[in-house]
Write a structure and sequence with these properties.
InterPro entries: Enolpyruvate_Tfrase_dom, Enolpyruvate_Tfrase_sf, EPSP_synthase_CS, RNA3'P_cycl/enolpyr_Trfase_a/b. By secondary structure, the chain is of the alpha+beta class. About 30% of the residues lie in helices and about 20% in strands. It contains 7 helices and 12 strands. A hairpin with a 3-residue loop joins strand 5 and strand 6. It is globular, with a radius of gyration of 19 Å. About 40% of the residues are buried.
Length: about 250
């Protein structure tokens, strides 16, 4: 449970098809809990009922059949985070097709932006973010680990020292994302302190640099936003964004 919620979601999706009762018990506290809740919500939409404990460490499913349903896939708050950050750094940006009531964990980017002093407006199906003077914050990213690159970019230009915890799982992504973020920030003139489960970032003036995305789509997208503020910046391996956002460029 503390490595990735995706393993648990996969088991939940197939468990109703088993002939016997399936019981799942996590030996470690689950990370990214919002995504487990989204899995349970989605299953319910298709007629599947799974009993879960309040702490999402135990699940039980009996044999059931999926039922047809209409399901509208929401806009992705993870991908939207880069443009929301761009608005806070550069000027007014409106990101459409976002559900303000979404259960997606990365919707918490709005809370972080608010805490950093960003000006934004939530509409029925979109969010408008305006250029703001940002201040440093502490943040626990354990339930929204994909936001680490975006938060690092915001912290790089914020006044003060930001401290992000709950980040160990980011080392297990497409790259060692904690190490890669630290190295990229250092190349752009930002002082950082990297620990096992913590990254501290001191906001400062930026300098353009060549950034190695290391095949990591989120690094490429996040540091392109920071590069827009730093001057001439080159993102190597930029085509890696095709994994989640082929039209990003």
């Amino acid at each position: 449970g503390n490595i990735s919620s995706q393993f648990v979601s996969a088991l939940l999706l197939i468990s109703p098809l088993a002939e016997e009762i399936v019981k799942i018990r996590l030996t470690t506290p689950p990370e990214s809990k919002p995504y487990l809740r989204m899995t349970l919500d989605c299953l319910e939409r298709f007629g599947i009922r799974i009993v879960s404990s309040k702490d999402l460490r135990q699940f039980e499913a009996v044999k059931q059949s999926y039922k047809p349903a209409t399901y509208e896939v929401e806009g992705d708050w993870s991908s939207a985070s880069y443009f929301l950050a761009l608005g806070a750094l550069s000027g007014e940006v409106e990101v459409e097709n976002l559900n303000p009531q979404s259960h997606q964990g990365d919707k918490i980017i709005l809370n972080f932006l608010r805490d950093m002093g960003a000006s934004f407006e939530i509409k029925q199906n979109s969010v408008i973010v305006r250029k703001s003077q940002l201040k440093a914050i502490p943040a626990d990213l354990s339930d929204c680990i994909d936001l680490l690159p975006t938060m690092a970019v915001l912290a790089a230009v914020a006044d003060g020292v930001s401290e992000f915890t709950g980040i160990f799982r980011a080392r297990l992504k497409e790259s060692n994302r904690v190490d890669a973020v630290r190295k990229a920030l250092t190349r752009m003139g930002i002082k950082t302190i990297e620990e096992k489960n913590r990254l501290t970032i001191a906001g400062s003036s930026l300098k353009g640099s060549a950034i190695d995305a290391k095949g990591d789509h989120r690094l490429a997208m996040a540091f392109s936003i920071l590069g827009s503020q730093a001057g001439e910046t080159i993102i190597n391996d930029a085509e890696c964004v095709a994994k989640t956002y082929p039209q990003f460029w």
